[in-house]
Fold:
Amino acid sequence: MNVCSKCSGTGWESVKGNDVRQVRRCSCSIEQEKRQLLSLVPVRYRDARLETLTPCLDTNRCFAPPEIQERSIALLKNRPDDSYCLLGGVGIGKSHYLAALYRHAVETQGTACYFVQASELVKGFREIEFGSDFEPFLCLPTIRRDIEQGLRPRIYIDELEKIPTFSQFSWAKVSEFFDGLYRLSDRDSKALQLCVASNLDRAEFEEFWGGAILRRLQELCVMMDFFAVEETVKLGT
Structure:
């Protein structure tokens, strides 16, 4: 096992400043944290990068028209730090886009980046409810602490339609979570970034989660509704 020559494996390196010896995080520690954060992304999306995103022309794998893909990718590349709600059917590219945005956040910020699937999010809520000794990876107290420390939490939630079957509990806790994010956010100062993806269209989403959560997402995020795009293409407008 190779030991970093700058920090001798401690994760902190000494630096001189104003005749006083100080310490700072070593680059090896920062890179290790980035690797750990990127490992949260499912393997099939782990190589997604904003700078290399291009339209997929294989109609057996991606069902979005190339021109729609081009416009969507251009928006994400030009505004990678915005919040997004990606709605669209299977094979549109939502999870790849989400993973690419997450990688950008990890590589540019390096901390306070969270990637979960909705089922993992709800599992964390249940751990809190039943008195777990461990705080979930993603929860409101964590996000609040990040903001208080001057960080900008970057939150990425995939597959918002996939949750365990205890839906009443899930709905209440997810609603509470998004309400909490709304209260913590400051749209002018961009206190946090929220990016979510779901296979449900707006009507299905509202029926599944309720109108309150959809309204919060509409207020917090740029809505990229690929269902609406599909209808526009069909109508030829």
Remarks:
- The first helix runs from residue 27 to 38.
